Amino acid sequence: MTRWLRRLPLGVRIAALTSGTLLALLVLVGMFVHRQFQAVLRDEIDSELVDRARMAVSASQGVRGAELTSHLLNSFDELYAPERSEVEVQLMSADGSVVAASPGLAGLEGLVTGGALVRVASGVPVYGDATIYGLVYRFAAVPVGDEGGHIVVAAAPIQGVSDVGRALLEVYVPPTVVAGVVAVLAGGVIARRSLAPLREFASGADAIGTLDLSQRLPTPPAADEIGRLAAILNRMLERLDTALGRERELTAEVGHELRTPLAIIRAEVELLHDRFPDEGLKASLESVLEEVDRITGVVDDMLLLARSDAKAGLDRPELVDLGELARTVAGRFSTVAAGRGVTLGASGEGRVEGDPRVIERAITNLVDNAVRHTPTAGAVEIEVEQRDKEAVLIVRDTGPGVPAAALGTMFDRYTRAGPRRGAAGLGLSIVAAVAASHDGNVQARNRLEGGLEITVEFHRLSGGPGQDADPQ
After folding, report:
1. pLDDT computed for residue 6 by the predictor
2. I need a labelling partner for 7 at 20 to 30 A (CA). Which of 112, 136, 228, 343 fits?
């Protein structure tokens, strides 16, 4: 298969190959029929010419010498006088020279030449085509059987045979062209219908999320190759779903098991911090507390993601003041931002029904990410808007932004877009999980004036995802 054909879609290739094969078959059949038809017509003419030549030779049996020539010509005149204008005769010697000829062949060289002379002399008739004065003639040569080895050649025009061949082509070619066009169209329709299950597979596979394998590919009713492929792929999805479920359970169990010892470690370190007066030791213990808090945050993120993967509902949904929550987080980061020379502010009002704890976690991750990647003398702005059927949180910074190619994947788990790095690559994936749990979404874009803008939409909920809360 040529390279350009391999680059075409599968349906186009199938249609091209099937229609091309059919068209080639029609052409070959037409060529065969035309060739056989011409051969049959020539066989009939050859048989008739041989019969005439042999009858003339039989009528001249016993004639020898110079009288043979005139006798053969007279025999043709007497036997075929009504058709004399169509059949020409030529008498040749064994060496290929012309002894005598009818008026239509007068002055021409012998029609039989070379090895054909030997075959005729051995008693085998010889046939062939010759162009005489612009017309195509069919000739047949037979031996006379005399001592001189003379040869009689009978020739007749076959323009009618050529005309019949052209007429056959004129009749056959148009239907062949129409059949080729129909074959192309039919091949396209057949290929499209045959590949429809594969297109459904592609749509179904594209709809299956990387962390949600509960969906299955559509299975066609026919127990053919496509049906078996669907069954195999669905069994593979079941195995992957089972393995992913076990991984989630392990993550949740490990997270729960780690929370208690981490809390104990923190309490013990705080106790030691209060008891030792040495400032150097206190600074070391404070560093330990920071690391414990960081590990605790990672564990909380893992638990939140495991809960999101399991599609667990909100424990106690309540009406959340998104503006107040944004200002609370901004106040908590004000010292860190001031220490880095970054201006941090929050404005706007908005309400959403949801889980205040996880929403605060999402805002914290966004603000922490923005403050850490905004240079000195930069600014981080948190804006809350109340829109129709949703509350929107926007976090803008004046940092370096992210590569354009990373904008579509920066909310994926364990992904770090360019210079922006978070704890284990989970920070922004937590934001996406929180937005999804509140029937919302998250988007990011690089600002024209520099920096990154992340927009989180929280759709208001009332009893379940996708339902609007009652206005209050």
Report:
1. 67
2. 228
